[in-house]
Amino acid sequence: MNYTADNIVAIASSSGYAGVGVVRVSGANLSQIIKGISGRDNLKPRYAHYSDLFAADGSVLDSGLLLYFVAPNSFTGEEVLEIQGHGSPIVLNMIVKRCVELGCRLAEAGEFSKRAYLNGKLDLVQAESIADLIHAESEASAKGAIKSLKGDFSKHINQINEELINLRMFVEATLDFPEEDIEFIADAKIRDKLTIVRNSIHKLFQGTKQGVLLNNGANIVIVGQPNVGKSSLLNALANEDVAIVTEIAGTTRDIVSQKIIIDGIPFNIIDTAGIRDTDDVVEKIGIERAYNALENADLCIILVDNQTGISDREIDIIKRLPNGMSKLYIHNKIDLTGIDAHIKEQDNETHVYLSAQQKLGLDNLRQKLLSMIGWNHNESDVFLARTRHLDAMKITVEHIDYAFNNWDSLEIIAEELRYAHNSLATITGEFTADDLLGEIFSRFCIGK
Ligand code: GDP
After folding, report:
1. Looking at the whole model, is its pTM more than 0.90?
2. Which of 223, 232, 233 to mutate to test the pocket of ligand 1 (most atoms within 8 A of CB)?
């Protein structure tokens, strides 16, 4: 252990009222705490012990179950005591306070998981996936998080890491023994090996993108004039009435952000203020926010009333969209124009014809949304990933590609492979700076 394992305590169950709540303690030696809270000298590891829990003056705070784990066979790799009391915040806080009296310190956010990582019980990807599992927004993302927690993602990373290490050793050996006659053969071998590594990394990069989509979802902005049916469309997609539907123009004055789940992917849909020229101060603020939201969007939906079609106003908005922003045109109210629900691809533009009110063509829209943000249904075993992983993968890919495209110098190849390796290793935490660790774990909740 490369840190002082003082004893830490926190409530591990969710805040609020429940039948049972859990207080978790971890540290190098818990005998004093066990004795103080239960009056017992020792607890048989991995057995449930029913016991009264005592205050300093000997009065009973609560009664519940004690579970004791001996190092290193615990979540953190240290001694761990789990106290299952009654699930009242008051009671659980009294138990925590008692543990503090007995020498514990309150745990920081993510500190249990951080200790598990520092003690080699989990790598960084696995530790992060605990937080992701807890915050998963759909069954699919929960399943993805479990896969990452079980080590699926790490396994892929480690495999490529091994390939990279082998390749680096080979390149450096060739550099160290530059015999003219073997150089040619060595070059060919390096090229082969590099091609294999490069393919693996590109494949994993695609998988990581899917994993990040499943975790973060996509930001969608809807622009359209008042009354074209923005609120009705959001309601139809979300199947619940969040935005208020009215017939008065310009009622959606502020940004309404709504989360809907399609095929397990969270979509953060931002319904913008009806963009139009106005003297109304409040509406002006809404319009400004609409433009800000556009900057961070993955996709922009332009919603029009099929009765009027695309007007100069939409054309004006489209001109002002950030460069390269994907656009999806939705023609609403086809029930009033007698058109069937369908999708039309024209001049690299996608047009979906539907009726939000009559719920016609919504599945077409859902499928189109998924494909436009890059979700690949066929990817059966998706693990959950984070933007941090994707960023590191991207750097790795860049260095590998650079090495691949620069055959002039083995020195450059060696250097690029070293960068690629270091960057990949930050994902599982093999080489990760302390400040990054601090940042990662501080985003966890207390008690995790
Ligand atoms: P927003 O201002 O863009 O949010 O538009 P709303 O969702 O409030 O809709 C404006 C009006 O159009 C309401 O009366 C809706 O019932 C109506 N509307 C929305 N979608 C449709 C549709 O597909 N067909 C028909 N006939 N009316 C619709």
Report:
1. no
2. 232
